[in-house]
Amino acid sequence: MIKIDSSKIEEFNQQNQNQHNHSFEFLCTELISQGIDIESILTNLITFQVAVPSWALGSGGTRFGRFPIGGEPRNLEEKIEDVGLIHALNNSSGAVSLHIPWDIPKDSQAIKDLAAEYNLVFDAVNSNTFQDQVDQEYSYKYGSLSHTSKQVREQAVAHNKDVIKFGEELGSKALTVWLADGSNFPGQQNFREALNRTKDSLTEIYDSLPSDWRLLIEYKPFEPNFYSMVIPDWGTSFMLASKIGDRAKTLVDLGHHLPNTNIEQIVAILLNENKLGGFHFNDSKYADDDLTTGSIKPYQLFLIFNELIDESLNHNEVFESTAWMIDASHNVKDPLEDLIQSLEAINQAYAKALLINRLALKQARDNNDPVKAQELLQTAFQTDVRPLLREARLRKQAALDPLGAYRYFEVRKQLIAKRGTDTVATGL
Ligand SMILES: [Mn+2]
Question: How far is ligand 1, taken at its centre, from the CA of residue 156, in Å?
Answer without folding.
Answer: 19
